[in-house]
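Exercise: predict the fold of this chain.
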Amino acid sequence: MRIMSTKTVLIILLVLAGVALFIYQRRGRPDPVTLTESQQDSLFWEILSLCRPVSEYEVETNAAVIRLSQEEDDVIFRFEDTLADLLSLLNKPYFIHSFTQKNIGHDDSFLYARCTAMIHGVDFFKRVLEGKEKDFWANESEGVLYIAKEAWARKHRSDVEHFPHSSKNALYF
């Protein structure tokens, strides 16, 4: 049986200590996420910036709907897709745990709270993804979910039920 040298044992211990430190530092934080180019689209975030919280359970979206209704249908559909993608980024165990620590709302509260994370802008949303923002979970912004549908309906003088697009990531509903 061959015995390892002191140097080899020391290297192994240092590697194990580094791994343990990495795991310890990552504990209690979400997995790192980098937003894609479409998720950082300035028009998307500009439109969301037009939303104004009215109370902790309501958000005024009329200005956002009017602004988005001035765009072509493909832009309206892309807005809906980006919204779905971003909401799905927050549908992870870390965020669910963070939410349940702050809120015992109804079944849809988690969905509406994730909408709140977006109306404060891309920088705020990135801090949420990093686990650095947690004080918004008690708020709800359900109206954000309907911006694209209402914009399309306004543009086409139609009803929101006739919205002809279904997001590929529509599981957030």
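Check your answer against the key: The chain has eight helices and two strands.
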